[in-house]
Queue: 2 jobs
Job 1
Amino acid sequence: MIRPILIHPDPRLKKPCDPVAEVTDDLHQLAKDMLETMYAAPGIGLAAPQVGVMKRVLVMDCIKDGPRRPMVLINPRLLWASEDQTVYEEGCLSIPEQFADVTRPAEVRVEWLSLDGSVQEEQFSGLWATCVQHEMDHLEGKLFIDYLGPLKRQMITRKMVKLKRERARQD
Ligand code: K1U
Ligand code: ZN
């Protein structure tokens, strides 16, 4: 099932999420829905708070061409970040049609729980590294616009308020 994606500003996008205590059937369903929602958007990542679920769950697939690699990360934890930084023009499904350069560590090592309950660990680089950091920020209530100056952030927020007003009028 495709779930509606929350649009900024929304208080749920500004709050830290709760750890997942147990991998239940509901969590399996949430992960399935999140992947379906992400692919349909289309996007390369999605975090649970973006669909209004305040749990530490994210999905991603940064393969643009070729076979899909859907990933589900539960309770992700940053183990290491490179000193080397990279700049990527980021977007966000909760901030449609707005893009800005964000500087982040070029490589990160992350540990997480998978849907089968096993602990996984991987070192991410390139777009995968940017994406996993963007999604982990969502779990802390942080958006990519929080890396921008106050004027740019305000301008984007105003655009989103207008967009939400227009969408509400159409409903
Ligand atoms: O978390 C999100 O809002 C999803 C976001 C993830 C992201 C994008 C760029 C850099 C870091 C993280 C998106 O997927 S925005 C859409 C997007 O980037 C995209 C869509 C279709 C094809 C390729 C990229
Ligand atoms: Zn986002």
Job 2
Amino acid sequence: MKKTLALLLAAIMMLALVACGGGDKPADSAPADTNQPADSAPADTNVPEAPAEGGTIGVCIYQFTDAFMTTYRNALQEILEGKGYKVSTVDGANDQAKQNEQINTFITQGVDALIINPVMTSAADQIIATVKAAGIPTVLINREPTADQMAVYDKLVYVGCDARQSGTMQGELILDTPNKGDINGDGKVSYIMVQGDPENVDAQYRTEFSVKALVDAGMEVEELNLTRGDWMRERGQEIVANDLAQFGDQVEVVFCNNDDMAIGALQSIQAAGRKVNEDIYLVGVDALDAALNEVQAGNMTGTVLNDAVGQATAAVEEMENLLGGATYAANSQSVYVDYVKVTPDNVQDFMG
Ligand code: GAL
């Protein structure tokens, strides 16, 4: 009797091993421990925390080499995939014609929704007309069109930040220094401005509002130079090397519209033998990891968190609202995530 029972148990174990072993299943098939046949629909009801079954989402990024948009697109991908969506992310390579084709291809493929970071803000009309004609729910990110441009399509929403806020915070970072940016005590703050792509409101507003914060606080300002660096580190380095060669010790503050250019600027500041927070101030925007390290080390005066994860989360949330049938009234199509000032005092909160 005992022997029969032992044999029976052994037979059951063998069967269980065969069922779980799945040696001939493709590596990417459904997990074998759900007790579902490999080709069945995901067993959502039996698997707690399983991602909801999603649709297919097309994500268009203006340029993959952009440091901040790399963090942002990785966050988007992770959040969307975590929710069970199929995601295809494409690189516009800073070419609007190429991005237009990519949008058309996604439409032909029948994606359920689009998330678009336009190459050119000026192309917004055309992009919006295209997605409207196809009836695709669309979230625009990072490059904000005007409210009037968006008003023509009620299944469209913009998720981003109010760039004026980041500019003001950059000005405040300078006002918070012991001499409010006037290192040589001549009664004025002499600065250079390294601008992003000026076609973009982020560049326009950060340039304007960083200086406005100083002026509003009663400081006299002197712009030694303003040059476009198109958000790129190498351009930041070149521009600041030239400006320091030309203006030398006159330069008290280096405003960079983003961190990648500020990291480039720092290389030139150090190469010129200058010391941040002693004889020159340097601020950026984004809170890239590299910039957080430099703020902590005292090599950048500060930066401003451009919350990639917060914006990606909000973008997916709005996309799901649209997929659920929501529509947006004119003048209520922009959703903003707050910027946060980052200084040596709180930098630790943003690291790791
Ligand atoms: C800004 C960001 C820049 C750059 C730009 C691209 O918000 O600060 O680093 O990524 O977007 O449009």
